[in-house]
Amino acid sequence: MKIAIIYSSVTGNTKDLVEEISKECHKKFQHVDIFPIQQFTFSFLDFYDVIVIGTYTWGNGDIPKEMVPLFEELNKQERKRLVTGIAGTGDRFYPHFCGAVDRFKDLLHAKTNLAVTLKVELLLQETDKVKCKQFVELVWKRLEEQVLLKK
Ligand SMILES: Cc1cc2nc3c(=O)[nH]c(=O)nc-3n(C[C@H](O)[C@H](O)[C@H](O)COP(=O)(O)O)c2cc1C
User: Fold this and answer.
1) Per-residue pLDDT tens for 54-99?
2) What is the pTM of this model?
3) Beta bridge partners of 112
4) Ligand 1 pocket test: which of 34, 94, 118, 123 has the largest number of ligand atoms within 8 Å of its C-beta?
5) Which atom of ligand 1 is nearest to the CA of 97?
6) Ligand 1 binding pocket includes 99 (Cβ within 6 Å)
7) Ligand 1 pocket check for 11: Cβ under 6 Å
8) Residue 151 has what pLDDT?
9) Where are the beta strands (DSSP E) in 15-140?
10) Is residue 131 helix, strand or coil?
11) Domains, the chain
12) Which of 20, 66, 74, 127 is the least crowded, having the fewest Cβ atoms under 10 Å away?
């Protein structure tokens, strides 16, 4: 099974988060790729069984501008067999905590087989590492369910 993690991070919080998720993925998946958004090509989308998106939130609950093309690409067509997860960091100081995670969550729920959502406040803590493990377990479970349904 193949998984891609696509993310954007300016100050490193989201990078730490997706690296922890990636570490957990290596325990289950044969093939794990991690891409900063700038290195991801949309044609790769069809190569993977699972896509995990990692994003921070900008402005007033907004998706960072470098993530908008990915959002628009995923919005173009349904991919109901693509299992997805969305994870992100934000700051509760802002009125819409992790707004970008919520925007992607709604999209992925409508267009893909969304398995799990995770919001982390700023820098990853030890308690968040448990959540990263659970995140990957839920993704894996959803994949298994999908394989069973196909049979
Ligand atoms: C100008 C600005 C606007 C932000 N707006 C939000 C916001 O609306 N909601 C939120 O939860 N966090 C907001 N944040 C906080 C960032 O999303 C948070 O610091 C995040 O962890 C940064 O991720 P990174 O370290 O991966 O770049 C904002 C930060 C800045 C500097």
Assistant:
1) 999 999 999 999 999 999 999 999 999 999 999 999 999 999 999 9
2) 0.97
3) 79
4) 94
5) 11
6) yes
7) yes
8) 54
9) 31-36, 50-56, 79-90, 112-121
10) helix
11) 2-150 (3.40.50.360)
12) 127
Cβ–ligand 1 distance for 55 under 6 Å, the answer no
107-122 pLDDT, tens digit each: 999 999 999 999 999 9
Dihedrals phi, psi of 65, to nearest 5 degrees: -60, -30
Atom 8, ligand 1: residue with shortest CA distance: 61
56: CA distance to ligand 1 center in Å? 6
Task: Give me the amino acid identity at 21.
Answer: I
What number of H helices and E strands is found in the chain?
4, 5
Tokens found for residue 85:
């997860």
